[in-house]
Specification:
single chain; alpha+beta; Aspartate Aminotransferase, domain 2; Aspartate Aminotransferase, domain 1; 2 domains; 3-stranded antiparallel β-sheet; 8 strands; elongated
């Protein structure tokens, strides 16, 4: 990421990074450390249930020099007279109750409850807990990918680094295989990618997280072997 940031800055551009799986920060350097100017991310994996598609929580961060142009309310760290750390609404001159129509923060509705739930999750897990969750995601996905690739006729079409999702190429229609997995084994085995990429009818996306046990992964692999026979 650092070389990309250097190239962008060399021509006067900003590097904007989009992260779809924020729990990966438990293993990776933050985009800011690598030179990113603005970062947005999906925070659903910070303890937020899937809930049939939402609501979730979006994460937005930027370098300090751009903070006054950020949308939304900002919470900053402050200390009371006894030296205890607290959090307060900061840069309030941006807010609609002060600047009215000139404000950069105009909130009519918000996801405050979801943001609170994500905060509680992160505070409960702590640094080491988040690192452990991220490690489990990466290791379990690697384990599942290796076993699936060993099934005759199956392969992994992409060799790029992965976190907790990977694409599998099956020997026949992914829709047919996933349908059999659901009907015969009661397993939701992945997402058929033909609905997005019609030229790849045999490809499907698999996701493995800290919530999946080794037994469940082994069961998926054994079930795939059965339904393709």
């Amino acid at each position: 990421l650092k070389p990309l940031a250097d190239k962008a800055h060399a021509v006067g551009a900003l590097l904007i990074v989009v992260v779809t799986e924020a729990i990966s920060f438990g293993l990776l350097k933050s985009p800011g450390e690598c030179g990113a100017d603005i970062v947005v991310a999906e925070g659903q994996s910070f303890g937020i249930p899937l809930s049939y598609g939402g609501p979730y929580v979006g994460l937005f961060a930027c370098q300090e020099k751009y903070v006054r142009n950020m949308p939304g309310r900002l919470a900053g760290i402050a200390y009371d007279k006894n030296g205890n750390r607290g959090f307060v609404l900061t840069l309030a001159t941006r807010e609609q109750h002060i600047r009215r129509e000139k404000a950069t923060s105009n909130i009519c509705t918000n996801q405050g409850l979801i943001a609170l739930a994500a905060t509680v999750y992160m505070e409960t897990m702590g640094k080491r807990g988040l690192q452990e969750v991220a490690m489990q995601n990466a290791q379990k996905a690697a384990y599942a990918a290796r076993l699936i690739a060993e099934i005759e006729g199956f392969s992994l079409p992409f060799s790029a680094p992965r976190f907790n999702e990977f694409v599998v190429r099956a020997p026949k229609s992914a829709k047919e295989i996933l349908s059999k997995l659901s009907e015969e084994k009661s397993i939701i085995g992945g997402l058929a990618l033909s609905r997005y990429y019609a030229d790849n009818p045999n490809d499907f996306l698999v996701c493995v997280t800290e919530l999946n046990s080794k037994e469940q992964i082994d069961n998926l692999v054994e079930s795939l072997q059965c339904v393709v026979k």
